[in-house]
Amino acid sequence: MIARGMIEEITAALGANGLVLRGGFVFSDGEDAPHGASGFPAKSVLLVGQAGAAPWRHFLRWREKQPCTIANPLDSWSRQVIGDVAHAFGARAVSPSDKPYLPFQQWAVRAEGLRPSPLGILMHPQYGLWHAYRGALLFEDEIALPEQGEAIHLCDACVEKPCLKSCPVDAYSTEGFAYQACLAHVRGRNGEPCRSGGCLDRNACPYGTEYRYPSDIQAFHMAAFAGL
Predict the structure, then answer these.
(1) How far, in Å, CA of 171 to CA of 174, rounded?
(2) Global pTM exceeds 0.90
(3) Residue range 78-125, pLDDT digits in tens
(4) Average pLDDT in the 187-192 region?
(5) Which of 153, 173, 207 is where one domain is finished?
(6) What is the greatest pairwise CA distance in the chain?
(7) Of 94, 120, 153, which closes a domain?
(8) Which DSSP symbol is given to 35?
(9) Domain extent at residue 162
């Protein structure tokens, strides 16, 4: 059993780089869990992520020392930081971009009791849409964590749904995400507001605005999305 004291130590180690624990759970008996550090099936998982822009200055400091040609630098930084923590505490680190893909969205729902917004991003009752999952720690022991109930879903109380009305090409709708339309717009001559300031639909959400990523961070993510 992973004691609460160890969880506090893991929290502190992640916090040194602006990352936070995003909950966790014990895999059910018979569940097809991924393997842990020694190759045996994991018994529990802790999600690692961010709330707001806290990791950004740590990432930028790391990036200054890397080759300018490094691919997917934020993923690389996240893997390194979370991997170091995993090694220190006998866990296996995994990333949302690892292949074959692991069910991070499902894990997040189980860990924090969240539900998706109309944009597909999980809506957090405090952070709104301004949060992310950067990785997870897989343990071959059980975690001593309280059971997580379903969180308040702020989208249920949002009548106007501005997140579905702000995009000039209606990329998001009740029908889903029009990926190609969004991509073409961001790359096109009229896509500058999105390229420099981030997704207009996401920015229109009224919740968690104090955690909203600054424009330079949103521009970084938009450039990665559009391959610019």
Answers:
(1) 10
(2) yes
(3) 999 999 999 999 999 999 999 999 999 999 999 999 999 999 999 999
(4) 94
(5) 153
(6) 56
(7) 153
(8) B
(9) 158-226
